[in-house]
Predict the structure.
Amino acid sequence: MRAWLMDGDGADAPRAPHQRTPNVPVGEEELRRLGVLYWFVDPVEYMAEGSDTPAKRHMKAIRAERGYAHADEVACSAAAMGDAFPAKCASFFEEHLHEDEEIRYILEGSGYFDIRSAADEWVRIAVTPGDMIVLPAGAYHRFTVDEGAMVRAVRLFRDAPSWTPVARGSGDGCGDDLACRKAYIAGLGGAATVVGATSA
């Protein structure tokens, strides 16, 4: 996993890297302050046959520690989604938040999670196979595949699987009014709680 400040909002070409010149990397401490958690879980071991590979034990330990009781798998590509792929990509790239963590473990392909910095700039986080990332509840973010146009990932949840985005804005029903958003804002600038996780 690598992260950097974007050179704009990326709307003109969402799948491009959008690094500044010179590049402005975002390091471990800043990602932790934003509440981003990260693990590397070997994808070859994870997808190997058998239930007792080191990677599967690692994932099992993370899930137990974090309370991730449910998981499913999602593929984002033209091959997997057909004609719906462009519209799905556009919806994922709309700025939004969730009332619970967003947890993804990348099996194949690659993409970008963008999260707002404390100064409200976009931080782009590049994910590739083996990367497991957690975005905190209440944090505005978005996702796009990169120029490879394909990603396959495991989604993890504490409760029954759901994916309910809440758009940025003000007024009833918008993300700014939610308790999770207010709690997230209050916590910015303090170190996020990290149990056995690292950032790169």
User: Anything to note?
Assistant: Confidence is low (pLDDT under 50) at residues 190-200. The longest strand covers residues 70-77.
